[in-house]
Design a protein that fits this description.
Strand 4, helix 4 and strand 5 form a beta-alpha-beta unit. The protein has a single domain, classed as Rossmann fold (3-Layer(aba) Sandwich), CATH 3.40.50.720. The protein is of the alpha/beta class. The model has no long low-confidence stretch (mean pLDDT 93). Strands 3-2-1-4-5-6-7 form a seven-stranded parallel β-sheet, sandwiched between helices. Helix 1 packs across helix 7, helix 3 runs parallel beside helix 4 and helix 4 packs parallel to helix 5. Pfam families: adh_short_C2. Belongs to the short-chain dehydrogenases/reductases (SDR) family. InterPro entries: NAD(P)-bd_dom_sf (IPR036291), Sc_DH/Rdtase_CS (IPR020904), SDR_fam (IPR002347). It comes from Microbacterium terricola. This is 3-oxoacyl-ACP reductase.
Length: 257
């Protein structure tokens, strides 16, 4: 099956020329692919992540349009440093992508350690709210996209509490969209299994079997997420808010019989 080329951008005007976007958790994987797409379409991006060396490598790949600030997504001082950097370097903020997420446990939801559950909610849900509030306070002008998951759309055995947190992100997206309209649009995407280090345990060693669950007969690539996110951020989606777009290779249309 064809796999998207992350460097292939539709011809025409650069949709993000003159815009500035903050993308959390973007030194690699889906976050980096989103940054790469926005830069390819003329935008400037600010990357975040915990590891300075990984961020430096990502900025080197993206060039002068990218800068980075290292820190933990659930740290208020880190968020303040990011938006201070945005104000000093760019003087404007157009878009926010809440990509950071964690899933430190695997197993039945009834067995999850309470402290692990709280940490998942803190990073995946509360930090998403906090980043959005901080961005609005910093003068966010246009749009937010939250990275949810198909795990938040139904039962997700093995990663159940992660799914619960992503269901909360999906509902949070609707609440924020309602409250921030009409000035700021807020949407989400819900990817299925994407070939990243984060999801490796879900496919490594059995990729063909994992791929068989999808009508499009392959797992997702990071570029499969970056394109829809770019669309939702852009003015091409100017009359779309409060929505969650599944990116699942057709898994949601599998017949029951």
């Amino acid at each position: 099956m064809p796999v998207p080329d992350p460097s292939a951008v539709p011809s025409g005007p650069a949709r993000f020329a003159g815009t500035v976007s903050v993308i959390t958790g973007s030194s690699r994987g889906i976050g980096f692919a989103i940054a790469e797409r926005l830069v390819a379409e003329g935008g400037a991006v600010i990357l975040t992540g915990r590891k300075q060396d990984a961020l430096d490598a990502a900025v080197d790949r993206l060039g002068d349009a990218a800068t980075a600030v290292a820190g933990r997504a659930d740290d208020a001082e880190h968020r303040a440093a990011v938006f201070a950097h945005v104000a000093e370097r760019h003087g404007r903020l157009d878009h926010l992508v809440n990509n950071t997420g964690i899933n430190p446990v695997y197993g039945p939801v009834v067995d999850i350690d309470a402290d692990a559950a709280r940490k998942i909610l803190e990073v995946n849900v509360v930090a998403t709210l906090d980043w959005t509030r901080a961005a609005v306070a910093a003068g966010l002008r246009r749009s937010v996209v939250n990275i949810a998951s198909v795990a938040g759309l139904g039962a997700s055995p093995g990663i159940a509490f992660y799914g619960i947190s992503k269901a909360a992100v999906i509902n949070l997206t609707m609440q924020l969209a309602y409250e921030l309209a009409p000035g700021i649009r807020v949407n989400a995407v819900a990817p299925a299994v994407i070939k990243t280090a984060f999801a490796r345990a879900l496919y490594e060693g059995h990729e063909a079997e994992a791929s068989a669950a999808y009508p499009l007969a392959r797992l997702g690539e990071t570029a499969d997420v970056a394109g829809p996110v770019a669309f939702l951020l852009s003015d091409d989606a100017a009359w779309i808010t409060g929505q969650t777009l599944p990116i699942d290779g057709g898994a949601g249309i599998r017949p029951f019989l």
